[in-house]
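WARN retry 2 of 3 for item q-0093 after timeout on previous attempt; input resubmitted unchanged.
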Amino acid sequence: MLYNLLPFLIISPPLFYGLFSLYCARDFFSRSHRVDRSSPPVTILKPVKGLDPESFANFASFCRQDYPRFQIVFVAASPNDPVIKVIRDLITQYPDVDMELVIDDRIYGANYKVCNLINAYHRAKYDILIVCDCDILVDPLYLRQVIAPFADPAVGLVTSLYRSTKVRGFATALEAMGFSSEMVPNVMVAMKLEGLSFAMGATMALRREALLKIGGFHALVDYLADDYQLGQMVRRAGYKLRLSRHYVESVMKRESLKEIVSRQLRWARTMRASRPAGFFASGITQTVPLALFALIASGPSAAGGWAVLLLTSVRIVSAVTFSRFYVRDAILPRFLWLLPLRDILSSMTWALSFLGNRVVWRGALFRILPGGKIIEVKKKLPESNPGTRSFHPGFTDGN
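OK item q-0093 returned
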């Protein structure tokens, strides 16, 4: 009997993790919430680099907010960046929006996105600041929803979930599936077990006083996962963190599988350095290796097959439920055939993350130090690998 139970014991961690994530999501999304109507003025800081086909539409969505008073500050490092023309066209087409462009190439550390934020900070007029990536699309109620938790004066930071509802090719579908089948479930579990202690770079709103208390953006300039570190620092400073249920759209461009895999490995190595114990423990939730171990442990008996069938069923139910009902991204069941590949990719990058500490980010080579700080090793590699989003128990590496 023990021999027949062994495969089921092996697959029990990812099995129960999948079921527990569904319980956590139901608890979070079923809570009542209200939208605060006080509407304090907001400054949106948008560091930009490079041009995407949807850049104008993404930027314009922030100009169409149903919100009384807000400011948008775009910041670029180079006057030759092609995105500058788009921003100037935007300023022309939305003359009633308080908008400006800052061009400043000063460098303070290895994270150039944070350098841009430092250069833009002095132009911020208001005491609620929002930092968001340049590939994010929002609806007109975005500001009202994200700012609402600040009605509680103890809240220092609010972050949002994100999703991709439009994919271009199977490689981007493979990555987008990770948002609903891994990132959001991981966030739900992390919040239930330890509370919200991180931020997600797609969109982060914070009080100026909280930012100043942690040392400003300068405190983040040597970290790759600046959003994760920002959440950690604000929480340690004594403020509450809140997760908005309002999704923003991560607009993905068509990319190759090689680019997707490279970015996934960068995220994994970043999280291993930033949160080593938790990242290592996440290995027991990997479905593919544990399913294989269950089959090997069962030998010639059918117990291994039944264990794998049970684990696969729970995995499918969990992934489809998150995609259809909690994330609503239309990825599953449409791309259900990609779920095994998604799980293989997750297991592979988790394992490979332990075999090195170098990552490619924005066309440069960096070495990740213990704790998550980075040192630039080599600039201008032959291929750039921009990417913005990650999914783990709630961390992103920013744009």
